[in-house]
Amino acid sequence: MSPNRPAADSRGRNSSLHIDWTACDGRGLCAELLPELLTEDEWGYPLARDGSAEPAVPARLTGAARRAVDRCPALALRLLPPA
Q1: What are the pLDDT digits (tens) for 11-21?
Q2: What CATH number does the domain containing 63 carry?
Q3: In a domain, 4, yes or no
Q4: d(Cα 22, Cα 29) in Å, to the nearest integer?
């Protein structure tokens, strides 16, 4: 995804954050970098604060979400375009 791409499309739909549970090793870095959207379970694995499988990323958090994706040591995060 291009860094210049907006978080929401022309219809106002937001991007979402995908967590690949098969790749995640529970280091918790994403929850530290994106506390507005993610928290950790008791083993350090990320959980969406809203309880969804793929939380929506508000436009104001796009930069933080991209940093979390880029810095995930297990490459377990992806920022998905609006559906």
Answers
A1: 557 999 999 99
A2: 3.30.70.20
A3: no
A4: 16
